């Protein structure tokens, strides 16, 4: 199995920045994509961004394009989410996910426990 551990959440003022990290361990060879999802109270979980770990291709939700950047450090098996110009509506629990896919999407096989981001 693959274990995912998120860190970097916290409380930030509107307009501020945070960087989330997701460290993967275990059978990481089973996955070729990692991403971030978020879930606000009373809302469904939504995809934020993902990256294909081999080639580095990325994709973003429209709501975060131009503000969030996903990146990776393959040597550390870690994926990052740099979040700038944060808005109150970005407040949510952020989850790291990993799986396999290509092109337009990927199937998620593993989830982290989440890290809380509060913009207020």
Describe this structure in words.
This protein is mainly beta and 120 residues long. 0% of the residues lie in helices and 58% in strands. It has no helices and 11 strands. Strands 2, 4, 5, 6, 9, 10 and 11 form a 7-stranded mixed sheet that branches. It has a 4-stranded antiparallel sheet with strand order 1-3-8-7, with no helix packed on it. β4 and β5 form a beta hairpin. It is globular, with a radius of gyration of 13 Å.
Secondary-structure map with pairings?
Layout: E1 2-7, E2 10-12, E3 18-26, E4 33-39, E5 46-52, E6 58-60, E7 68-73, E8 78-83, E9 92-102, E10 105-111, E11 115-119
Parallel strand pairs: 2-11
Antiparallel strand pairs: 1-3, 3-8, 4-5, 4-9, 5-6, 7-8, 9-10, 9-11
Question: Can you describe this structure in just a few lines?
Answer:
By secondary structure, the protein is mainly beta. Helices cover 0% and strands 58% of the residues.
Distance between the termini: 37 Å
Gyration radius over CA:
13 Å
**Residue-averaged pLDDT:** 95
Amount of helix = under 10%
Helix count, DSSP H or I runs of 4 or more residues: 0
Q: SSE order, as H and E?
A: EEEEEEEEEEE
* Helix-and-strand structural type: mainly beta
Give me the oligomer status.
single chain
Based on CA inertia axes, which overall geometry fits? globular
Number of DSSP E strands: 11
Annotation keywords:
120 residues; seven-stranded mixed β-sheet; four-stranded antiparallel β-sheet; 11 strands; mainly beta; single chain
């Amino acid at each position: 199995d693959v274990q995912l551990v998120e860190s970097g959440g916290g409380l930030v003022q509107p307009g501020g920045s945070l960087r989330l990290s997701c460290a993967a361990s275990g059978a990481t060879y089973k996955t070729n994509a990692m991403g971030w999802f978020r879930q606000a109270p009373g809302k469904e979980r939504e995809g934020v961004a993902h990256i294909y770990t081999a080639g580095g291709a990325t994709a973003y939700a429209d709501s975060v394009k131009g503000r969030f950047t996903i990146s990776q450090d393959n040597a550390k098996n870690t994926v990052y989410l740099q979040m700038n110009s944060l808005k109150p509506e970005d407040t949510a629990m952020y989850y790291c996910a990993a799986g396999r896919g290509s092109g337009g999407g990927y199937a998620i096989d593993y989830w982290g426990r989440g890290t809380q981001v509060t913009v207020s």
